[in-house]
Design brief:
By secondary structure, the chain is of the alpha/beta class. The protein has helices at about 5-15, 50, 60-70, 85-95, 110-125, 145-150, 155, 180-200, 225-235, 290, 305-320, 325-350, 375-390, 415-435; strands spanning about 25-30, 35, 40-45, 105-110, 130-135, 165, 205-210, 240-245, 270, 280-285, 350-360, 360-365, 395, 395-400, 405. The radius of gyration is 22 Å and the shape is globular. The chain binds 4'-deoxy-4'-aminopyridoxal-5'-phosphate (PMP). 4'-deoxy-4'-aminopyridoxal-5'-phosphate (PMP) binds near residues 116 and 247.
Length: about 450
């Protein structure tokens, strides 16, 4: 029995392993796109810790920055005293936002969920309105408030918290208004949102929170003019637009922020994952006018913004800024290459219903039948947790039906890695189609 097998047995005994569908590997270390288990097996990482290892695992400078800080200061947060690391991280994060009129203040929290909750509180204070709107299929975390939004377990943990509304999201492959061109679907969604504002919330809405591209919801890219249209309506009613760029931020889509590609400037941006190098942090970024509505003691967190975390954020953002041009151009080039290769798989494999994405945030939606679009949930999970894993590639599922494979390698990915991932998908899809007679 290998070390992995022994440990897996023990893990099953002591942990609540029924709470999450995990890859059955025990990881010892990771570098760039490679993850190694305790037996020394190497895996190509196309899930990057749900897009966190954006610059590859352990980019140069990160471990040293953490170790150097840890030797001096471990306990402490960014709210009972200040540190130079906190200031440096704030400057680094704000350097990612060239428009200083709109984005000049930042506050750090520990996780994406907490960052979103803070953004909601800011919107309530600033507008003095109460309703929060979010869009179907969006994902903003697993705290009680953010977790209730996304609807995944609403039946079990419901009802929705009072004062929250869910409006339709224009999902081009499955438009909630019926079969229509994506732009029409986007228009219908904006009209419905305006209807909700007027007749359901009676204009008492503080914010609309949305991902630019739904990540956990299945890498769903809305029509490119959707947010521009939406922002116009929200501005009419004084409603803040909060962009959750926790997954899409810092280059993942080929631009530093996904919002740049949608020709819109949100009022509040929440970033996390990629900018942290892997340590727990999120950044809520907005302008002074909005954040000054908050009051003393509105916020605190025992572990938040500690010196070690802040040093990691600075090291990660510095590395990104230093190599930005290469990283973004690689994200675009490799994203296009991956899309081309995936379209070849689409032509060959009837299990693939749709391929979509921006930059290196790509989704492959699997269906049992292209006409009925019946989700191939079991098959998607089987590929990610068994067939691809066995062949040395890590993929994770997404989508409300669990039928979308996320294709999200680090920005440093090379063509040969993409070729290997495509080969593994090709074989895995072919096997299932044969076994289940899917034509
Ligand atoms: N927003 C988005 C878009 C996310 O993808 C996630 C995590 N997958 C979160 C928020 C929540 O982040 P966390 O798990 O750090 O609370």
């Amino acid at each position: 029995m290998g070390r992995s097998e022994e440990l897996l047995k023990e893990l099953d005994e002591y942990l609540m392993t029924n709470l999450y569908p995990t890859h059955k590997i025990v990881v010892r270390e990771a570098r760039d796109i490679y993850v190694y288990d305790v037996d020394g097996n190497a895996y190509l990482d196309f899930m990057t810790v749900v897009t966190t290892a954006l610059l590859g695992h352990n980019p140069p400078g990160l471990a040293d920055a953490i170790a150097e800080t840890a030797k001096r200061l471990i306990a402490g947060n960014g709210y009972n005293w200040y540190t130079e690391e906190l200031l440096n991280a704030a400057k680094a994060v704000l350097s990612l936002f060239p428009d200083k009129n709109l984005y000049n203040k930042v506050h750090f929290k520990l996780s994406g969920s907490e960052g979103i909750e803070l953004a909601l509180k800011i919107a309530k204070r600033y507008t003095k309105n109460t309703y929060i709107m979010y869009l179907m299929g969006g994902y903003h975390g697993r705290t009680y408030l953010t977790g209730s939004y996304h609807g995944m377990r609403r039946r079990e943990y419901g009802p929705l918290p009072p004062g929250t509304l869910i409006a339709p999201f224009p999902y081009p492959y499955r438009c909630p208004f019926g079969d229509m061109p994506p732009e029409e679907c986007g228009k219908a969604a904006v009209e419905t949102i305006e209807y909700y504002i007027n007749y359901v919330a009676i204009k008492d809405v503080c914010c609309l929170v949305t991902e630019p591209i739904q990540g956990v919801g299945g890498i769903v890219v809305p029509p490119m003019d959707f947010f521009e249209r939406l922002k116009k309506v929200l501005d009419t009613y004084g409603i803040l637009l909060i962009f959750d760029e926790v997954q899409s931020g810092m280059g993942r889509t080929g631009t530093t922020w996904a919002f740049e590609q949608f020709n819109v400037k949100p009022d509040i941006v929440v970033a996390a994952k990629g900018m942290t190098g892997g340590l727990p942090a999120s950044a809520v970024v907005t302008r002074k006018e909005i954040t000054s509505a908050m009051q003393l003691n509105d916020e605190h967190s025992t572990f938040g913004a500690s010196a070690i975390i802040m040093a990691a954020v600075k090291a990660t953002v510095d590395y990104y800024n230093m190599h930005k041009e290469e990283l973004l151009s690689n994200a675009k080039k490799m994203g296009e290459y991956a899309m081309k290769r995936l379209m070849e798989l689409y032509d060959k494999h009837p299990l693939i219903g749709d391929v979509r994405g921006l930059g290196l945030m790509i989704g492959i939606e699997l269906v049992k039948n292209r006409k009925t679009k019946e989700p191939a949930t079991k098959e998607t999970s089987d590929i990610c947790l068994n067939r691809a894993l066995k062949r040395g590639v890590l993929f994770v599922t997404s989508g409300w039906n669990g039928n979308v494979i996320r294709f999200a390698p680090p920005l440093t990915v090379k063509q040969e890695h993409i070729d290997k991932a495509i080969e593994v998908l090709d074989k895995s899809l072919g096997e299932i189609e044969k076994e289940e007679n899917i034509k």
